[in-house]
Amino acid sequence: MVVATQPHAAAVAGSRFLPRERFDDLVAVLAGGGRRVVGPTVADGAIVFADLTDGTALPAGWTLRTSPGRARLERLPEGPGSARTFQYAVSGEGIKRFTFPSRVDALAMETDADGTVRVRVEAPPPEPLAIVGARACDLAALAVHDGVLVGGPAVDPDYAARRRDLVIVAVECAVAGSTCFCATMGTGPEVTTGADLVLAELDDGFVARAPTPAGERVLAALDLAPALEEQSMRALAQVATTRAVMGTGAVPANSRSVLMANLDHPRWDAIAERCIACANCTLVCPTCFCTGLEVTSGFDGRASGATRAWDSCFTEGFAQVAGGSFRPRPRDRYRQWLTHKFATWWDQFGTSGCIGCGRCIAWCPVGIDVRAELNAIAGDVPPPAAAPLPRHDIVAQPAISTEALEFSRATVVSVTPETADTATLRLATDDARILAGQPGQFLMVGVPAFAIPPISISRFHPDGIELTIRAAGAATSFLTKLRKGASLGVRGPLGRGWPVDDAIGRDVVIVAGGIGLAPLRPVIDAVLRDRARFKDVRIYLGARTPRERLFVDEVDALAARDDVLVRTTVDRAGPEWLGRVGIVTQLFKTVQGTGADATAFICGPERMMAATADVLGDLGVPRDHIWVTLERHMECGVGLCGHCQLGSRFVCRDGPVFSVAELGADLRREGL
Amino acid sequence: MPSAHRASSAAAPAGDGPPSAAGDGPPSGPVPIIDALPPGPRARLAARIVRREIEPGTTFMHEGDVTSSLAIIVRGRVALRLRVPERGPVTILTLEAGDIVGWSAIVAPYRATTSATALEPTELATLDAVDLRELLASDTEVAARFLPPVMESVAARVAATRDQLLDLFRGAGVDAW
Amino acid sequence: MDVAMRDGAAAGVAAVGPAAQSGAAANHVTGRSSAVRRPRVGVVKFASCDGCQLTILDVEDHLLEIAERFEIVEFAEATSRRSSGPFDVLLVEGSISTPEQAVEIARLRAEAKLLVVIGACATAGGIQALRTAAEHEAFRTAVYPVPAFVDSLATARPVADVVHVDAELRGCPIAPEQLVELLVSLTTGRRPQLPDQAVCLECKRRGVPCVVVARGLPCLGPVTRTGCGAICPRFGRGCYGCFGPREQANTAGLSAAFVWQAANPLGEDAAGQPPAPDPARPAGPVDVGRLFAGFTGATAPFRAATDALGGRPLMPLRPTLASPPETLREGPPSWGPAGTASAVPGPGDGAPRPATTPAKSRRSHGPRR
User: Fold this and answer.
1) Interface predicted TM-score (ipTM)
2) Is A605 in the B-facing interface, judged by CB distances under 8 Å?
3) Cα(A415)–Cα(C26) distance, rounded to whole angstroms?
4) Full-model pTM
């Protein structure tokens, strides 16, 4: 408490007083120059942010009583404070809608008359906006979003544009709801970051201070008298009372370590009985940032748009790939959400993902309380005496950049059918980034009217690349049917590829199952190009049936070399097949020599990769020299959409190639 | 059919390249498994071994028949096949040097669960089923030493079958893209 | 991305579009929009109210384009022209509620490349499927004065219970946007985006405050598939589940919360007593169970909730009609072949025949509950 209030008291020193009847003037000053002003209003039985032209629409005389599963408007009791306009704790949905709208235009794609595909990244022009009535928790959440959406390697252009010219008038909470726990999370109730103007509401007006030049300009334009010391002291005492009412210790200080040590706690099953996986917690959460693309098109499919919409890890489709969903059970989804908020967010962004606003508690239709669940999972483990509080600082806003999301154009040079449902497209491109890509990296591939799938690069050429695509769904089916001359949009290269250098001077073991050979083909190319730098090279290939083997002629040619061992097996075969039948791991038992001196690159179904890694580990191959590539649902490929999250990683950005040592138990936890 | 041609070329032993020496032993090399046993059991089992050369394409064990012997592959490759209704024979596993064919010789009801066909010139070290059962029943030292590697072989096949089943039953019909 | 099509549907969809007919890739390169032949579309109905068919006429902005791209060969609500199959796409409304309908849908299935069921009746059985949870015979005798004229199956079944279905559009009625999305996907070869997630996502995206949390109203949105645009919560009432269960619908979890809310009303009146009962809110478990017994109440997750809590529609609904006048109790012995139609009046002739057999056999099927 002392730590938080001392600088706060200093900030109060230069305060002004805004009489209640002059609130309209504040809105007018903010709106000067055509700035849009939004603030809390009462609508549909809730407090909802909407456009303000003056102060009359504010929720004067209302408060909001919250408890798990309930948030009800109530009239303030008669008395001197009955005209207050901010006498509630947290609104239903905060300010996220204005910086991170639920639906925005993301892409426009069209096929020209000459057949050329064009993809344009949409980013809105910056619109001056003022938000009145944000709370300390809202600002902490904004800081979290800054870290996620513009603080990483890829910038979300839409967010950056909306964030560009934003004035925030914050209000320090005079009351706390039963669901509030910002004091525990170190984010409030005092406003310490992110606001241009901070108001503390008293019965007859507002004590106002301006932490930023923009806020100072607003105060100067209003020409207000300094706040009386008595008024400032009342404002301070009020927020101190709010803090005291909330108390601290709502969630265990060691939630992060407790959660990660209890990923198989029976409590997850108990929660899943009550949790209806409706996604409301994620959608009211001001830090949740996951989105998906909704593709729309006309009947001819020549032009299409992609809308980026709020998505949620509580839906089955969220973690869906061709083979199924990585989180089929609501239990898995709840665990993903809670562990991300309180644990893995720290690893990814250096802060807590929870800012203590309690919206997920109040707006859960069945009233699940994250505080209770965290305490139940922590059990009787005594928390450490003091744990560091999260710091949520507004980061400097970078330039609005669409770079991470820009597509370039590629043309189909040839199409080679590989199997009944798989084809290799050779593409010509002059995109230098793509041509300089690494084995194991992938592209997002777009054609109008279809979803945009991630596809691994299966070979690099000086003037283009190859993509080997299995028709697993509508988009990939369409891609495999493209013909010479077809045009498509490509974005990449994305992700971290295979560390081929890790194998220099060592034995190389390459294990591929089915289509998994495609992303490994550039590794084989790279190793053979520099064959002398590697010791023994052994390639083990599995396929479901002989007909489903990929690159058969190439593999035959490899097998004919005397400096590479190639073993092929299929899961089942007719009598005409005289080769090996069995799962790919069985190939190892007759091979001598693979051991501590080897680096392995594995690609296939996750279960196959895990089993192969086990066998190789038993043979002595160190776990940090066993590399796998993971498949996950991806919408953006650059760590912005959230779909491919696995523990503390975004598979798209931090992978898709990982060592088995890096993944640890995550390799099996959500595998298909 | 092109895939059949490719199959044969990819599967040719020459294509396996030098780093491996497995499967390339002399015509009457040492017998895997047996040779790894302590001298006593090894001698008593070795005395009963009958070596057999099998021509490629020869089916030496038939699904459903009484298993006449348990064999250890010394050299070559053997396909285990099932007859699937309306599809004919399907190879479910291939075995190589060191693998056991015909574990059903010592497990009731002593009938083969698959057929076994040599894919390459193959040498087997065979043990007569009845003879072996009598030995295992009367010679506890042989039983104690010989059964674990047999169990290991059967367990590996169960595990492999399990993985194949998981693959077979994995979410069919779902398309994400 | 959500998968709302049934197994194998994607392939089926890709097969009927003009893109597929002219070669998707060629079309893509040359931009030819030429459909070699417009897909033949039929619209038929079984036990239903025609509301979903009318939705087809409701997509005004797209009607012309649809007419250009599809040949509508059978559509009773829009044209008196009649045609038989084969159909490239057959839209089927209504549940299968009589033996004749079961035969007819099997015939139509054989004539349709792609069979798409539309609406709550066709996808979930509809309101008439509630009879499967009650005593069909009791309904029959309660509702109709001369029940023997009414030849119906003991159940009203979703079409997919009778024949293979390639895709489904949910809702009562279906959402015009989803219909257009389906037709667009047919022509482009893409997979229709028919998400199977909860209505809640749409409420939140549209900024609609949760009626459960803000008002204490019961709402099936959390367990119901989205697609309607959250139309009921947008107008301040709870979702009644007309799109049917979403994936993994935890109806037990939701109903437990509603039962708890009913037992723990919020607030108090002036005298410090719990608030007076509100007819818009469930008073207890049976009311909660009844919430699920609506248009899609025959689906497994919803029916399980109703069964667990009570709230099945109980018989007799109209006790006064449970014992019709003696003269009306017996109908004709059977429908009779066409040749005997003049001798045996069919339903709607208004000429019930005098009773020829004792009435008591029918009475034995009366209400039991």
Assistant:
1) 0.90
2) yes
3) 13
4) 0.84
